Hints:
The complex is a heterodimer of chains A (248) and B (226).
Chain A: E1 44-45, H1 50-53, E2 72-73, E3 76-77, E4 82-91, E5 101-105, E6 131-135, E7 141-147, E8 152-153, E9 161-162, E10 165-170, E11 179-184, H2 195-198, E12 211-212, E13 223-226, E14 229-231
Parallel strand pairs in A: 4-13, 4-14
Antiparallel strand pairs in A: 2-3, 4-7, 5-6, 5-10, 8-9, 10-11, 12-13
Chain B: H1 54-58, E1 75-82, E2 92-98, E3 123-127, E4 134-139, E5 145-146, E6 152-153, E7 157-163, E8 170-176, H2 180-185, H3 194-198, E9 201-204, E10 208-210, E11 213-214, E12 224-225
Bound molecules: fe (iii) ion (FE).
Amino acid sequence: MTGTTSESRLILPRYLREPAEKRTPVGFPDYRSTALRAPLRTPVDLPHRLTEVTGPVLGEDRVLPQDADLTLRNGGEAIGQRILVYGRVLDSDGRPVPDALVEVWQANAAGRYRHVADNWPAPLDPHFDGLGRVVTDSLGRYEFMTVKPGAYPWGNHHNAWRPAHIHFSLFGRAFTQRLVTQMYFPDDPLFGQDPIFNAIPPVARHRAVSRYSLERTQDNWALAFEWDIVLRGTDQTPFETDDDGDVA
Amino acid sequence: MTTAEGASQFVDPLDVPPDPATPFQPRSGQRGTGFLTEPFRLGTTPSATVGPYLAIGLTWPDGIWAAAEGTEGGIWIRGRVLDGAGDVVPDAMLETWQADPDGRFPSPEDPRGASTHPGFRGYARASTVHPPGEFGIFTLKPGRVPDGEGGLQAPHIDVSVFARGLLDRVVTRIYFADEAAANAEDVVLRGLTEEQRRTLVAEPTDDGYRLDIHLQGERETVFFAV
Lengths: 248, 226
Ligand SMILES: [Fe+3]
């Protein structure tokens, strides 16, 4: 049956997916928790329809200005190496993703999370809760001030230590663009023995590592690390026209 | 001149054979034009697990309310997340995304215009912490949504599951057992076996619906590659 209404013949974007050899697999044998949790059957292809190409609007109203500074909590200053983390959220077409919610969480400078399940003997910091939230600006830029997280042991194997990392959660415009990931720091000596880092295919690992930035390092105040995050783009050619008929 | 039989073995060093059809290109493997022949693409950022401490970053007091508390016609969708040993997963997070009762999405990306259904966000985020293994979201039952091919999809909710031990989210859908006619026409369900379909269909309860998500095992839920 051929529909004639505009609703039945919708022209929808198709979000491109990185080939499997460049994507993190859901399960990875060296990461033991995946054994009973990662699904074993091959996922069923779901072509992108309206539900997949739309997504929630979660913006400024979820974020307070102080959420962008993790170093000032409970009326005092967090202990640790102060760092500025900044970058852009783009899609794979190179287009900025504006007004996107970015949620981050991390361990404190000693490598301890403020969480009931984390009780290894490293100190908690009363002035650090490890939670940050920002929204990207009109050019897709984000930044927040924090302290560099410490490495922490996690018992996956003998002497298993997570390389220092910050957890990131991002929404783009569409359900297909949803991403939860971790940002690492350059040249971490713990990369080699970390199965969560090494589950990322070798060709894509550098995309999870931030870059030290002397340009944005603040004199007498904070080191800076730059990390651009790339969400899935669409199969539209880069030469489509915008609302005014101009080549975008 | 070299017509004698004995000379046929002689190889003339200046008799250079023509280029093979695919010339040797040590770096790229192919001779390019110097212009981009495909759109330029950035590599996407690889996913990683939410880990065991996701509650720090991803807890929202209003997370479970896809529809505002008290919205008329609201339903609870509850269920458990189970692992391959049949144990409940007490540290997972679910996110849901769906249309409003008219089949429209509260998103500027809906080409028909964003839904303005009062109190409806369409999105919920629930943990399985309290009680362990169980999630619950409050929402409105979605309407039917065009499938883009002239038909209508059955009412459904897209679901992402995140947890320690999952290096990427896994995606599934929730359908509704009391929509048998619509389900029979649904383009996604039609592509599945009866046994697979059962893993996606929520059963009615007193205040909504219930569906367990099995990450592994005999009754492993159908997960989708999106
Ligand atoms: Fe962590």
